[in-house]
Design a protein that fits this description.
The protein has 92 residues and is mainly α. It has 3 helices and no strands. Helices cover 28% and strands 0% of the residues. It is flat. 1% of the residues are buried.
Length: 92
């Protein structure tokens, strides 16, 4: 809202990239989980609706165990091995 000056944007935020998401825990804006499968389960069964909940997740996102495995596999493909193994980008 501070950027757009639109009151309808209150409590909204920019979604970060999924690059290296499997290495970027903890997850969620408050860091409540370190396990990606807990993230899947949150959207599968524990969504709490509020005024800013996206309509696409209001009714949860039912995922089978197979789908969770497929999602896990896909997210792993977004890990940039060249980036994470580059010594020039290592933190001191």
């Amino acid at each position: 809202m501070r950027i757009t000056r639109n009151p309808a944007d209150s409590l909204k935020f920019k979604v970060p990239s999924l690059r290296n998401v499997m290495l970027s825990f903890p997850y969620f804006h408050d860091g409540r989980t370190r396990d990606i499968f807990d993230v899947f389960e949150h959207y599968n069964a524990r969504v709490v609706n509020g005024p800013t909940t996206d309509p696409l997740v209001r009714n949860k996102i039912p995922l089978s165990n197979f789908e969770k495995g497929q999602l896990w596999a896909f997210l792993n493909t977004l890990t940039d091995q060249a980036f994470i193994s580059n010594p020039g980008l290592a933190q001191p």
